[in-house]
């Protein structure tokens, strides 16, 4: 309870001003619609989900915010409108980065082996249209030169990649594996310039769920390798070994202890000597797991660390969204925005807890030594 109280107090006020301190956050806002242009329509029309998202973002007020599960469009109209709504709610993000994601990027091939062409599963990353449920990085501080977008890296070109096979043959086909990208949405390394002039790097990704496939475990293997990408990047296997202070964040769609998936790559990231795990927590996550029961009762992980509130006759509540700062950072505080029912700001989540998203915003306050 004391930990939860500290988290609540931290959310009530912005991070104290310091040249090299900041609040970072990641959130799968589930702002994916069923067709192009519909998200922009909803933002401009005052959609209740959009309003709930804006109020939570303004309450937490991160300096750098990674949104996953948000529709992309070529001219950035939806993102610009969403940023304007955030500004109206009280937090301004003049700097944004959102290149085209792999979601909905057509291949012309049968990528899931179902014998049909042209559905969402045949895109580079699942999507009913180009940009369906993509990613966006928003920042109060300027974005530096030469961000790195690894989203076109072929899965087979990742060192140590494990691609799916069925009956001894590449699944779904050799032709499909020859064009299959690793990233279901994207892998980015984006520089951000702090007020002191110091550059930090933000590493962002959103992995595919490790389910909705067959015995070949295509999605499970891809999910693991999307996390393993960062292990290869850290160790210099994809080019120069990154040295600048960085923060890895995003939706890994993988709990290290519970649910489906192959957790070894996620476990390796959480214990990597160049990374820290602040273990963001909430009182609401613990309360929800106990109240909802179901599969949650058999979970091994600490429910206070959960970041997604899923069906309790399905995967249940899991920790799938992460902020992992590099070892250079001092972690001042961290949390998951999941107030318990009746607590301060709980109304922002609604009585069911899903007014904005089934995921919860994860945040961390970080500082760099002089």
Judging by the overall fold, what is the CATH architecture?
4-Layer Sandwich
Count of DSSP H/I helices: 8
CATH class: Alpha Beta
| Estimated structural class | alpha+beta
Taken in chain order, the helices and strands follow as HEHHEHEEEEEHEEHEHHEEE
Alpha-carbon distance between the two ends: 34 Å
CATH topology: Deoxyribonuclease I, Chain A
Domains (count): 1
- Shape label: globular
Strand order of the largest sheet: 3-4-2-1-13-12
Question: Helical percent range?
Answer: 10-25%
**Low-confidence runs:** 1-10
Beta-strand percentage range: 15-25%
- As a whole number of angstroms, the C-alpha radius of gyration is 20 Å
The main sheet comes to: 6 strands, mixed
Q: What is the name of the CATH superfamily? A: Endonuclease/exonuclease/phosphatase
Q: Indicate the mean pLDDT.
A: 93
Structural write-up:
This protein has 370 residues and is α+β, with helices and mostly antiparallel strands. It has one domain: Endonuclease/exonuclease/phosphatase (Deoxyribonuclease I, Chain A, 4-Layer Sandwich), CATH 3.60.10. The protein is built from 8 helices and 13 strands. The protein has a 6-stranded mixed beta sheet with strand order 3-4-2-1-13-12, covered by helices on one side. The longest helix is centred in the middle third of the chain and has 17 residues, at 218-234. It starts with a helix and ends with a strand.
